[in-house]
Amino acid sequence: MLNIALFGPPGAGKGTQSEFLIKKFNLFYISTGDLLRKELANETKLGLQAKSIIAKGGLVSDEIIVQIIEKTIKNNPDVNGFLFDGFPRTFVQAYILEGLMIKLGTKLDLLISIKVPEDESVKRLLDRGKTSGRLDDNEEVIRNRLREYHNKTLPVLDFFKQRGNYIAINGMQSIPDVTKDIIQVINDVLSKKLINIVIFGYPGSGRGSLGKALAEKYNLEFVATGAMLDEEIKKKSKIGQQVKELYETGQLVPDEIVIRLLEQKIENSKGVKGFIFKGYPRTLVQSYILDGMLRKHDSSINKIFDIQVDTLELIRRLDKRSKTDKAMPYDSSTERIVQRLEEHKTKTIPVIEKYKEIHDVTVIDGTPPFEIVFKNLCKEIESSFKNLVSE
Asked: Annotated catalytic residue: which of 128, 152, 161, 354?
């Protein structure tokens, strides 16, 4: 996900750049004024609260504004990120936005400030006033607006300078050159972002084969906890012996074992573009562990797939696999296959439901032949990460 706040004094060209960035990076435009007007027009619960405040001559509180922004973000899971215009306006709102981003498992990647001298802003707005017919495009009003902008904006800019994600762009250049500079800083951020994809699906849905193929195609690191555990068994390590005994009794491997192996995997995968996780997280607890582990590396989950296959087809596939060298320990009998499917239903489905609240969980039909399912997955990835993994 790419989240940007675009700043600039009146006349800096924010509108032109916003329109371009929204289209190029598939971002959702967040203007608190526009969102508030929509809530008022639709007479939503928040809109009615705001209407009551406005009717009494008051200002709509940050409490209401942040709820509107949060709702908007959650209601638009298909975009690649959000472009904030007019928020945060104050030092307090900067903290509010940071807290909201943490709650949603993401962050503000960039605050881009288009710098234009006051006299140039005045000149541009006066020129605009000659054709716009706007009564506020006169020098006295313009300079008052600019003073207000600078007085309110300076603490916000200082806040993000301290966070290390503030970038100033020279707005005195031509529009194409300003655009070019903005794209450059965004691409620099994107190049450092890990792409983290989680593939869910019942045993037999094809997660493993599909995950490996995707990792190879997009130069990502395939992380399968099952494979890591099997490797420990082959090495006859102490962990491997513990895992073998758990497998033989049909139990799940404790989180403390898996965490150590995952940490090693991530730490030893320097320079990779990202990870595809298969088989983890399987439980709600594990989902919190993975979120925390990725945050430790200044990263988060970017895309989640749920590969769905009819139960009878799953059983047929698992029974067929049990007769090959690719058989899993739980493929040994119909009873164990059913037990594993039930385990997924009771423990992993709640994880998917949790992620649906904060992520876009993309459902993929896993019934067709491998090539078709793989093609559909690639289409979704390239749509979501067109500027990250389109090579």
From this structure: 128
